[in-house]
Amino acid sequence: MTFLDYVKKAQSLDEVVSLYAEYQVKAREINWTNGDLVRIAVDHFGDKVYGSLAEAGMGTVKHLQQIEKVARAFDPVYREPMFPWSLYRAAYQAAMRTKENPVDVLFFGIEQGWHAKDFANYGRPSKEEYVLNCTCPMCGFRYKITGQRQITASLICPVCDSENESTLLPGEFIPK
User: Fold this and answer.
1) Helices marked H in the chain
2) How many other β-carbons are positioned within 10 Å of the β-carbon of residue 113?
3) Cβ contact 128:175 at 8 Å
4) pLDDT digits (tens, 9 = 90+) for 2-20
5) Domain extents for the chain?
6) Of 77, 80, 58, which Cα lies nearest the Cα of 68?
């Protein structure tokens, strides 16, 4: 009997939701099983496994390498079926980018309530721009300074500074 047959015979929406949740858990387990299979095969036969499995239609070499590396990074004790496999993949990629332990990155992200997108941004420079709009209180020169990080240090007016006056610019950088 297929999943659709079960859905057609369901007596309530709760039953459909329960069936769907059960199948989601099974779908997540498939990536782990495949990753472990590739990991064990690579340990036994070497890197030629990727090409052989790809030729047999089991996925691209890149996909096979990815599921193997994620399975290797997270022992079964750390695999929680309630979290999607993509979260583990994103945590692994973030850990490789930041040169941190994948399990530590995963736990940190889970504690923060992160989604895969948050892991994808972890360790990357912020794309958010910050701006400081101000007028020097001494010389009256107007400034608009933008940057990709928030500057917390005080800035000295370059016009006043060239005249041996050290006038601090007022205001603070705010997200653009």
Assistant:
1) 3-9, 13-45, 48-55, 61-73, 85-98, 102-112, 116-121, 158-162
2) 7
3) yes
4) 767 767 777 888 888 888 8
5) 1-73, 82-124, 130-175
6) 58
